[in-house]
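Trying the structure run again after the queue cleared.
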Amino acid sequence: MKILKHYRFLLLRRTIQLGLLFLYFMANYAGWKLLSGNLSSSEVLGVIPLSDPLAILQLFLAGGALGANALLGAFIIAAFYALFAGRAFCAYVCPMNLITDSANYLRRLLGIDTLQRRLLLRRHTRYWVLGMTLLLSLVLGLPAFEFISPIGILHRGIIFGMGMGGAAILIVFLFDLLAVKNGFCGHLCPLGAFYSLIGRYSLLKVRYQKESCTLCMKCKEICPEKQVLDLIGKQSGYVLGGECLNCGRCIEVCEGNSLGFSIRSLIEFKKDEKHENIKA
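Done. Tokens:
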């Protein structure tokens, strides 16, 4: 039971990720209608549309024609993450998380984390990549990231067969393994940057209780976006950084049970917003 508690959110993430891939796979090969399409454009039970809001934004800037279903699907997804789940897409849905987590596990196993870093990337680089993605979509008249996205390549490869697209996935894996820890998801991915921005004020957050904290700092060791845990050892409160994945890793390793998921009330939301404005 202790092991199950320690890995409960990891098991939840993998169940959701693999479950979604299975449903997409069966929609293509067995005609199931529960969830059909791909991560860019899907349908639930053949009725409810779901669309990647960043893909739709790129198409809009590129001058593409957008149907009502595509716009409705983008609104549903954007509203869910903006109002409730934050950046949880990256941890619970995106199939690239399986690849980058594997690379990070190997980094720890091989001791690569302890070696001197040879390539430095700033965390805000992803926001520059996001800006360039939108600008190129506008200038070139095509959805720039969708053509080269390893997320889409991996998702289509799992469902329809990988082919030469496997080379792009291998590059991401080796980049995260040998070059930069959490390199793709934490530094470069424009989709992650997009969800960080729209999910900044979501209601689901990790809450920290300073009184029970043992200051073991295991949460910061395991967190793929450790900059969001700047309140550890300082003050109780919510992890407010939009880059937080809501993955639950910090909660799993916390020895004092000082971290846990919580839904912010409207009063708490206004207090946190005021506090962040003062800090800025």
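The longest helix spans residues 8-29. Worth checking whether this holds up in the mutant runs.
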